[in-house]
Amino acid sequence: MSTAQQLHDLLTEGSELNIVCHNNPDPDCLASALALGRIASAAGIDERHIFYSGDISHQQNRAFVNLLEIDLKQFDPAAIQDLPPGSLLAFVDHSVPGANNRVPPGTAVDIVIDHHPAEGIDARFVDHREELGAAATMLTQYVRELDVDLDDTLATALLFAIRSETLGFLRGATCAEYDAAGFLHAHADRKLLRQISSPSVTGETIDAISTAIDNRMTKGAVLISHVGRTTERDALPQAADYLATLEGVDTTIIFGVIHDAIHLSARSPDPRIHIGDVLREVFEDVGSAGGHHDVAGGEIPLGIFADYTTDDAQLLAIVEQVITARLVAGLKLSNKSED
Known about the structure:
Elements: H1 3-11, E1 16-20, H2 27-42, E2 47-52, H3 59-68, E3 73-74, E4 87-92, E5 109-114, E6 123-128, H4 135-145, H5 152-165, H6 175-185, H7 190-197, H8 203-214, E7 217-219, E8 222-229, H9 235-243, E9 251-258, E10 261-267, H10 275-283, E11 288-291, E12 295-301, H11 312-330
Parallel strand pairs: 1-2, 1-4, 2-3, 4-5, 5-6, 8-9
Antiparallel strand pairs: 7-8, 9-10, 10-12, 11-12
Helix pairs in contact: 2-4, 2-5, 3-7, 4-5, 4-6, 5-6, 8-9, 10-11
């Protein structure tokens, strides 16, 4: 029996499907959730919900949700413990309760579909393929094999997600991504794709990127910078992507204070560095971090800096000093700054 058929058969056992996105979901997660909902509908499940925690703050992600009219609900961790009989719980683009999601650790999960590195995955149905560039590729394969109705909304969502997750097929793309994109292309709405791809940018995002440019410090081919305090979480990966184009830079790590946590975003095409492992090893004692060899992120609660939270200037100075020192040590860099 094929993997797609196994998924379909499990869905036919349920009367309700609850799809939980990871924190601050991106297009790959959202499109995958939308596709899984369509597959569940074809399997006879009428009650379907997509939940998320955190924020949808990146202007492209907001455009994605609004233009595709994706119905999202805020996730309540308490409610997940009280699901009615026949309810199925699914994760897409993440895989372990409590890791980049607010699902209580130890919660029983029915379906996991993910391409990120992870250990300890436990579910009734697991499709975990780290070699692929996007979860949306996996969902496209299911839609295709199960002959699920593919309208222009779903095709556009999946095609944009694959393109976004692979940075226009330049990061982690495999033959499977190209094959999926070729299948989706004929069904996608080109005008909608252009609209999602070119949303307006907020002034605060520009300010955050500007701050990262001003604060940059390079050591060899590694650039470390911060955006200070911002409410625009997705300004960090945007700053990381932009500064990664700086001549001579192979690894970029950007951090900043957002609400009550320090967030990190990193990029590194350097084959000598697995940036996901670096962030995990550097910050696993104070927060959660990790990712792929070339793209990664993390979050550290501000609780470890509790003594400084009454003075924002002092807090930012201490955060910059501590985070930078940990990264320099973790990457085994010289203590001499070149900027």
